[in-house]
Amino acid sequence: MAKKLTITTQLTVFQSIDELPQPIQELMHKAQEARERAYAPYSLFKVGAALQLANGEVVMGNNQENAAFPSGLCAERVAAFHAGATYPGVAFQAMALTVRSLQKEVNTPTPPCGACRQSLAEYEVNQKTPIAIYFMGETGKVAQASSVKDLLPFVFDSTFLQNIS
C-alpha cells in the first residue's frame, strides 16, 4: 500500500530589511549593491547576491546574461563559484539575495532558481552545516530559510552517484 509522505518547510518572514539582525542588514545592502551592477540587458531583471563566509569575508555576485541565453549565470552561482575558487574549504554561513525588475516593482521575496538551489545544496552538504538564505524583491518583506534544504527538500547529492557494493 502506498503511503503519503509529508514534506514541511519553514521560513521566517521579516516585514523589511530593518527587522533583520544588523549583520544580515549589512549583507543585504551588499546584495543590493551587487544587484545594481548586474548585466541584464535581455531579461531586464537584476539579481544581486552577497555571501557571508566563515572567515569573515563577503563575496558578491550578480546575474550575467548573454545573447546565447544558456551561457549566462545567476547571481547566486556567480557568488558561490567565486567563493569556492577564492576561498576553497571555507564554509558559507549566509547568503542575501535581492532582485529588481526594470519593468515593474518587485515587492515579493524572490527565492533562488532551481539550478542555484542545487548548486548551493552541494556546498551545504559538503560543509555539513546549513547555509541561511535571506531573499527579497526590490522592496518589502524578506524571507529567511535556515537551510538550503528548506528550499530544496529532496537534495540530489553525491550519495546518489556512489556505487553500492
UniProtKB/TrEMBL annotation:
GO terms for cellular component: cytosol. Its cofactor is Zn(2+). InterPro entries: CMP_dCMP_dom (IPR002125), Cyt/Deoxycyt_deaminase (IPR050202), Cyt_deam_tetra (IPR006262), Cytidine_deaminase-like (IPR016193). It is an enzyme of class 3 (hydrolase). CDD domains: cytidine_deaminase. It comes from the Bacteria. Its EC number is 3.5.4.5. Keywords: Hydrolase, Metal-binding, Zinc. Belongs to the cytidine and deoxycytidylate deaminase family. NCBIfam families: cyt_deam_tetra (TIGR01354), PRK05578.1 (NF004064). This is Cytidine deaminase. It comes from Marinirhabdus gelatinilytica. The lineage of its organism: Bacteria, Pseudomonadati, Bacteroidota, Flavobacteriia, Flavobacteriales.
